[in-house]
Amino acid sequence: MHACFAMRSLAAASIVTFAVLFGAVPTAGAQDVTLEVWSHEADEPAKVAFRELAAKNLEKTHPGVKVKITWYEKNPLFAALKTALPAGKGPDVFYLEPDQVEYIGAGYIVPLDDLVNWNNIEPWARKVWTHNAKTYGIPQEAYTVELYYNKDALKKLGVDLPANAQFTQAQFLELVKKARAAGMTPIAQGVGDRPYPGAYITVEALLRKLGPDDYQKLFTSKLSFSDPRVVEVLKWVKELVDAGAYPKNFMTLKLGESHYYFYSKPGALMLPMGSFYTGRAFVPEDKGGQPQSFPLGIMQFPAMDRGACNECKTSTIGASFAINAGSKQKKLAAEFLDAMSTPEMGKMWIETVYLQTGIKADVKNFTGPHAAYFTELMERQKGREIFHRPAARHGHGRMQGRLRPGAELRLSERPAFGRPNRAGDEQGLLQGVAGRGLKPMAPPEIDARRAGVGILVVFLAPALLVYAGFTIYPVLRTFYNAFHSIKPQGMVEFVGLSNFTALLFTDSIFWKAVANTSVFTIVATLVDVIGGLLLALCLFARAPLAPLLRVVWFTPVLMSYVVVGIIWVWIYDYDWGLANAVLRW
User: Fold this and answer.
1) pLDDT < 50 positions in the chain
2) Is the dihedral of CA 448, 450, 453, 454 positive or negative?
3) What is the DSSP-derived secondary structure letter of residue 23?
4) In this structure, are 461 and 557 located in the same domain?
5) Which residues, in sequence order, are CB contacts of 83 under 8 Å at separation 6+?
6) Selection from 198, 243, 211 nearest residue 310 by Cα
7) Residue at 449 is within a domain
8) What sign for the dihedral angle of Cα 448, 452, 458, 463?
9) Does a cis peptide bond (omega within 30 degrees of 0) precede residue 405?
10) Which end of the chain has less Cβ packing within 10 Å, N or C?
11) pTM beyond cutoff 0.70
């Protein structure tokens, strides 16, 4: 099954590549219309079913229309969009997230104000996608930042969850110490493929300590990290780290792996995570999902001593969809967005994806195998003051507002800090605090973009001199030698093209070298590409002996260059090398 999926993914990628390079192929029938959609989250079956159903609903009401959804992982999707959109190609509709405002500035997506039905979208969710009084995206996914825990593990430690589900900072530190003493990993977390999970504890503590206004100022360079309240929080986080709060493989543990670490092997007491946790946890157990019997609970992040807003909760918008400015079917594309955004679809999202949404949906009673989870999730929203974290690249000094009472059901906001390149990217900035116990410094007054030319020259000069001496000079000297003849006595004579003439017409070894190089280049490239692809498909499909193949594949990468060089010397040695011994035999 995995192999088939891999082959379908490969075929889809090939089709997309040809479509981008050579343009779309005309449809066979004049009446048939294909709406192209590119989406992320193929590994979350509930979201796939949701979007496929919306496509079928549109097709039913529009005879002759075919909605073709191509599924990607996130990074390949964004890479494909960066290639297709500037060329005027790409899909009619595509997945994106609120921090990707560069698509707006480049004119790659169109305003949706007059195209879609905004009566089905929560005003607070629409506001996230509003720039210069125009709205560019349909907010589908919303989520809150939660602190999940294992109820049985907490009981095993002899600790009762407070009535308000919130420990104090001292109680939380004591809980971490008690878990570690019992041989239990307190917090399953890592930054192996994403920086922001490593900062959940830190930034949530800062939000509660500072309150929304000062918290916003901190990450827009309007409040110093040397502020006593900030220092107090970071010292507390350092105490957690020293107490063994995180796994030893924190720096390499990936997001998906941290889920499995928490609810399966080796197991952990807590997992700070966005409520999109369900996308990976609520898949079948044989596909890496959470065991049905797992005692999942949700607690509040700890209350800080003298905290300005211990009742605060972070929220954000995640998965969204926009219309390609180059699409020739904008009206039809808008109808697809509407098909995904009806109250009925919003209800389906909540009851099958088990995640909040920006779509209006009146769900009072939850059904399904995970209804108890969603009921508890909504219970943890009650009485909370919701802080909408702005997208990293357009939220400077601006909060998206607080929700009215009763709107908790659909509330959330995704941290948009995938690319740590601004002061607002607190996850990337504070990743090391949780992982290494480092003390953050106050934001610098200047950076390289504002430094004078003299300063830049001073810092770049050593590297440039080394590069010039060992790279540029040898290249230039090679060209010089090609047109000169150097005598044994050191005399240099200009010979023009004589060296090239001799090489081409009288030097037989040269042509042998060309032939050998050509064969080696072609054969080696084919072996590398085809062999690597087959090996990757085997590993992806979890073929028999896949772990052994993975070890064989990566072992040479882990070996020292010196050791590899010595091994090849042994292989090629004229007298007793393995290669020559085989040839002689």
Assistant:
1) 1-30, 392-449
2) negative
3) -
4) no
5) 20
6) 211
7) no
8) positive
9) no
10) C
11) no
| C-alpha Rg value of the chain to the nearest Å | 29
Which pLDDT does position 72 carry in this prediction? 93
Residue 208's pLDDT is 97
Predicted local distance difference test score (pLDDT) of residue 336: 98
- Report yes or no: 205 and 287 within 8 Å, Cβ to Cβ: no
- The 3-state DSSP composition of the chain as helix, strand, coil percent (nearest 5) reads 50, 15, 40
Torsion-angle region of 92 (φ positive above 0: left; ψ -120 to 50: alpha; else: beta) = alpha
- 93-96 vs 320-323, strand pairing mode: antiparallel
What are the helix (H) ranges across 121-277? 123-128, 151-156, 169-181, 200-218, 228-242, 255-263
Number of domains in the chain: 4
User: Which of 299, 315, 331 delimits the end of a domain?
Assistant: 315
Handedness of CA 77, 81, 84, 89 (dihedral sign): positive
Nearest to 37 by CA among 322, 279, 342, 343: 322
Query: Computed from CA positions of residues 184, 188, 192, 198, in that sequence, does the dihedral angle turn out positive or negative?
Result: negative
Residue 219 CB partners (closer than 8 Å, separation 6+): 423, 424, 425, 426, 429
Task: Extract long-range pairs of 522-527: CB within 8 Å, 24+ residues apart.
Answer: none
